[in-house]
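Why does residue order matter? Because the sequence determines the fold. Keep that principle in mind as you read this record.
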Amino acid sequence: MAEIGPDVLGDEPGELLLLMGFAVVFFVILYLY
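Structure:
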């Protein structure tokens, strides 16, 4: 369980940051253009 815990916690925030980063770039492009 000790190995599975950090794996799940480390994986989900990574995907969330990637999704948010993509959304931010998308909105910035829409705002500028």
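The radius of gyration is 15 Å.
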